[in-house]
Amino acid sequence: MPGRINSAADALSRKTMLAAISQLKSLLLDGIKEGLKHDAAARSLLEYAKEGKIRRFWVEEELLYTKGRRLYVPHYGNLRELMKECHDSKWAGHPGMHRTLALMQDGYYWPRMRDDVKSYV
Question: Which residues form a coiled coil (predicted)?
Answer without folding.
Answer: none
